[in-house]
């Protein structure tokens, strides 16, 4: 059996088991989704949002990209953010990175990954440059990478607050809260790095939008 055919077989087993446990499972799931959370995570296959949080389908709205970046020109990310915040009315937005992130490690090197990846990793390099004194003081390269993972999560969470999408929601409904977490591949635990309340005082005035 081909590897992709194995996925189809496992899907049938999963669907059959779900129906045995609850005959109305898929009918209920198909009606609507009302997640309280938007998860902006890394594309790494070892960090599935539902599994690491112990949640069920329909409880978390998910966007993933390499190294869980929030880039102000990324229409894909912004469309997900806008839909989750304005239409689904999520209460929390979580940026979740993970220790041992390949994207972060790549950004720490001087290797050429060709134009598109170079452009993407540049965002993480900027995080390193802005925190160079702290990071260069960490002798162990793996510990330094782990700290950059944490700083990157913090930076991306703070970037969310600079969007008009989040600021409009804060003004209209005092939500969502913004969170930055890091997942440990070695122990399966989530670590909170930053939590931001719907408070405009946390944003540098240059990023504030008027009349939104």
UniProtKB/TrEMBL annotation:
EC number: 4.2.1.1
The keyword Lyase appears for this protein: yes
Matches recorded under Pfam families: Pro_CA
Name of protein: Carbonic anhydrase
Alphabetical list of CDD domains matching this protein: beta_CA_cladeA
Key words of the record: Lyase, Metal-binding, Zinc
UniProt KW Zinc keyword: yes
SMART domains hit by this protein: Pro_CA
Physiological role: Reversible hydration of carbon dioxide.
Catalytic activity: hydrogencarbonate + H(+) = CO2 + H2O
InterPro entries registered for this protein in UniProt: Carbonic_anhydrase, Carbonic_anhydrase_CS, Carbonic_anhydrase_sf
Cofactor: Zn(2+)
Family to which the UniProt record says this protein belongs: Belongs to the beta-class carbonic anhydrase family.
């Amino acid at each position: 059996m081909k590897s992709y055919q194995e996925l189809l077989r496992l899907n049938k087993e999963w669907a059959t088991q779900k129906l045995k446990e609850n005959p109305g499972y898929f009918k209920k799931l198909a009606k609507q989704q009302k997640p309280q959370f938007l998860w902006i995570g890394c594309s790494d296959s070892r960090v599935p949002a539902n599994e690491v949080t112990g949640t069920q389908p329909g409880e978390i709205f998910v966007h993933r990209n390499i190294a869980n970046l929030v880039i102000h020109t990324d229409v894909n990310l912004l469309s997900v953010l806008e839909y989750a915040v304005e239409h689904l009315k999520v209460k929390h937005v979580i940026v979740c990175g993970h220790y041992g992130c390949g994207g972060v490690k790549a950004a720490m090197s001087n290797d050429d990954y060709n134009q598109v990846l170079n452009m993407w990793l540049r965002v993480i390099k900027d995080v390193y440059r802005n925190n160079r004194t702290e990071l260069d003081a960490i002798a162990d390269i793996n510990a330094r990478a782990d700290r950059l993972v944490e700083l990157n999560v913090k930076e991306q969470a703070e970037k969310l607050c600079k969007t008009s999408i989040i600021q409009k929601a804060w003004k209209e409904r005092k939500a969502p809260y913004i969170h930055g977490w890091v997942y440990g591949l070695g122990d399966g635990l989530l670590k909170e790095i930053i939590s931001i309340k719907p408070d405009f005082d946390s944003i540098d005035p240059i990023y504030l939008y008027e009349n939104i």
